[in-house]
Amino acid sequence: MARTHVDEIIAAIDIGTTKICVLIARKLHDESIEVIGIGKSPSEGLHKGVVVDIARTVRSIRAAVSEAELMAGMKITSATIGIAGGHISSVNSHGVIPVKRTDVSATDMENVLAAARAIPVPEGQEILHVLPQYFVIDRREKVHDPRGMHGVRLEVQAHIIMGATAAVQDLVTCCEKAGILVDDVVLEQIASAYAVLSDDEKELGVGVLDIGGGTSDFAVYQNGSIRHTMVLPVAGNHFTNDLAIGLRTTIADAERIKKEYGLACMGALKRNELIEVAKVQGGNARDVVESADIISILEPRAREVLALVRDEVLEHHLHSYIRTGIVLTGGGALLRGMQLLAEDIFDVPIRIGHPRIEFSLPESLDNPMYATSYGLLLHKVNKEHDAHMQSIDAPLVKRVFETMKSWVMDFF
Ligand SMILES: Nc1ncnc2c1ncn2[C@@H]1O[C@H](COP(=O)(O)OP(=O)(O)OP(=O)(O)O)[C@@H](O)[C@H]1O
Ligand SMILES: [Mg+2]
């Protein structure tokens, strides 16, 4: 049966702390995508990845949606959205069941994942993703897809991601008020990973760190599936605030200076310059500072973010998983010297991840800031084909998740 025009259009909304980005894309026959609409607007109602002002967030979403719709020449009614924030936590879990007949059925798969997700969930939290890492059928380890295989005992190792129910609901409400139904809620670093990591990197082992404005989101992949996730409530805005306080200047000027002259480490400084800085009281009053003064403010914050991630790697014994290195993405990865500093702190190869453009991505999206939004689109396209796709189960937002329910059934 021929697909309807509407079926071929997908949309994603990255509701970031600093910007909202809406992408509308056409799904092509070979499952690649062509972006046909881009809308961006400054994000005004979020703090550290969490909605703090619904009205302002709705306004920002509407503005970005309208811009994207205008460019695409069509309206959208639903979208995949990303989620982050300090409320996100994750654990690895294990489930085991006897196989009902002699070969593994869809029901066995459902049951073993249900066994893995039977963990104590703190009050006010809910499970967002149950990500199968691998299955074990009798003694056959690391099975990707055990359906149809023979055995008597089925085990699964899964990564479970939880988030605050209220935070998820607030995001969904904002989208609904902006006229968009949410058809998937995806952890932001999982989306970013889609956009910036290669399949080989995910197979051999890699980390991805999305340094945004409000949160730094980390994920580790190996054997093609997710091993670990973490959300840190420290990111680019903290660098700007540190500069504003340290230089006694305005937030706007601190942001400008960070982008134009900022460096994450003294080792990356080639020439010490004199830089004019607006005084915090406004007007035409100016101070003059040296590049080295700016770096001495930014470097401790850059070290803090990277050291927190390194501590997580050490604490959870993740070093053997990040064999191919770590990919830095998100706008915070654009701070010059970040790669050098990260190489020093992690002692593994580091690269800056731009969205991997498969088909006619407009040049304006070739920037780490758009890894999440482009990744949300890729997530949407790939989910039916990925044997390691997450099953998502957020009871609270189920009413808007009709499409999600159907693909969970497809997966099994
Ligand atoms: N050239 C640059 N140098 C340094 N920092 C930069 C540069 N460009 C952008 N940034 C910083 O990147 C951050 C925004 O990144 P991004 O757009 O990925 O965040 P976000 O998605 O809005 O936020 P979050 O993911 O935390 O909700 C801001 O703090 C901004 O100052
Ligand atoms: Mg972001």
Question: Which structural traits does this protein have?
Answer:
412 residues, Dna Ligase, domain 1, Nucleotidyltransferase, domain 5, 5-stranded mixed β-sheet, 5-stranded antiparallel β-sheet, 19 strands, 33% helix, disordered C terminus, binds adenosine-5'-triphosphate, binds magnesium ion
Radius of gyration: 22 Å
**And the CATH topology of the domain at 199-354?**
Nucleotidyltransferase, domain 5
Regarding CATH, which class of the domain at 199-354? Alpha Beta
**At the fourth CATH level, what is the homologous superfamily of the domain at 199-354?**
ATPase, nucleotide binding domain
Mean pLDDT: 89
Main sheet characteristics: 5 strands, mixed
In spatial order, strands of the major sheet run 3-2-1-6-11
Helix content: 25-40%
N-to-C terminal Cα separation, in Å?
23 Å
Q: Could you spell the SSE succession in H and E letters?
A: EEEEEHEEHEEEHEHHEEEHHEEHEHEHEH
Fraction of residues in β-strands: 25-35%
Annotated CATH architecture of the domain at 199-354: 2-Layer Sandwich
Please tally the helical runs, counting DSSP H or I stretches of 4 or more residues. 11
Shape summary = globular
The total strand number stands at 19
> Which parts are unreliable, with pLDDT below 50 for 5 consecutive residues or more?
1-6, 387-412
What small-molecule ligands were found? adenosine-5'-triphosphate, magnesium ion
